[in-house]
Amino acid sequence: MAKKPMSRAIDTLKVFRDIIQLNPIKSVLPIATSAVREASNKNEFLTQVLKETGFNFKILSEREEALYSYVGAIKALQIPDVLFFDIGGGSLEIVHAEQFKIKKVISLPLGSLRLTRKFDDKKGKLTNKNLESLQRYVLNLLPSKRDLNLSDDTKLVGVGGTLRALARYEQKLSGYPLDKTHNYKIGRKSLDFTINRLAKMTSGDISKISVIGASRAETIVAGSYVIRTLMEKYDLSNLYVSNHGLREGALSIFLEDPKTYHNGNPTAEQIRSTIGIIEPRKANPEKENFLYSLSSIKLLSKRERKIFDYAEKILLSKHSFSNPQSIFYFVMDEDLPLDHDDHLILGLALVHTRHPKTSDWLFTRYKTILSQQDKISIKKISILVTLRKILERTKSKVELRLHGTRIVELIVNPSRSNHNFLLKDALRKFENAFDVKVILSIRPYQGSSQNSILEL
């Protein structure tokens, strides 16, 4: 490492040190990756860093860097079968996993800054000839598809500043209405169009693109070619972006087991545990029976059930919202392991429980992402949230029976006086959302002596 870059790095670290000292932060985990790991004078540099800033850096091995980045991304996305990559300035980390089990970990000298310096014509632009050479170089270094033994279910997942900038620019070009890159899906054709457009520009032109900026302008083309080559070589049609990576993964491993973090050798079981695969699910038997009944009579799809589960988790967090739109923006700000359309359905369904007109108005903003069937799902999830709340507060046991194909009998056995008018209103909305006729049968609760069947 040259003296000027070392000095710039130390000055930047001093800024972070001052920020930390101004805030109630007790622990800091300073980590260094390939740029420091490969430097011949790394010990001299880190000694100077410790002396001037107080930060005692841990140099991550290639394996640690890859695994921590994988943990951060997959903990947030919950995708079991992945070809994961983290493209940094100096290296490309690759992790292949099936059912969250690590199959292979690879680190290659294919960072965007390294490749830019290797193939740049020194005029602020990679020529077509240089880009062809760069692509051949990347192809030769990447392992074969046979070596990785990828299954048909494998999804390509990536992290890194280059990828996030590329995703933001692709969203800008396509007029994507949702301001969110986490779990954003990029198709190969769309990626090709975006990269070809960038390849025609100089770094000066790229620096003027607000969603990319000057800091990525010089290296984004080289990094983009690495990403495209990954998709082409392994014949993967889509790429999923994660906003979570190395930092979140290193922190998660540390919080799970500080000793493992310091030793730098997490086991497969520790990785799965950190991602959250082993956590037991606490099920409410009444809720499970109710939802299972809806699914068994084909009124609730697996997708809708999954979104409903997230809706209940958010409601259990007991956040207070002053208006319906606040609910929506709170939900959309969370990085959940949901596709963007499912995430929007979740947010709009929760708004719909409070104010259907606001939900409908917001829906029009995202109609290029959502379908009319999604609008039906929003109504179904919304009324299920409302209905479940009524049944839980009256401590009711519920049984569903299907008569024919479109008539549903709801048998309610409350343990306290039921709010019949509120329940009837909710069930009218249930009829509308699920396109069924509902017969409501109320069995006696303690203190009552008669059954009743209510017409809606």
TrEMBL record:
Name of this protein: Putative Exopolyphosphatase
Alphabetical list of Pfam families matching this protein: Ppx-GppA
InterPro entries attached to this UniProt entry: ATPase_NBD, GppA/Ppx_hydrolase, Ppx_GppA_N
Start and end residues of each Ppx/GppA phosphatase N-terminal domain: 2-251
Gene3D superfamilies xrefs: 3.30.420.40, Exopolyphosphatase. Domain 2
Record-linked CDD domains: ASKHA_NBD_HpPPX-GppA-like (cd24052)
Upper classification of the organism: Archaea, Nitrososphaerota, Nitrososphaeria, Nitrosotaleales, Nitrosotaleaceae
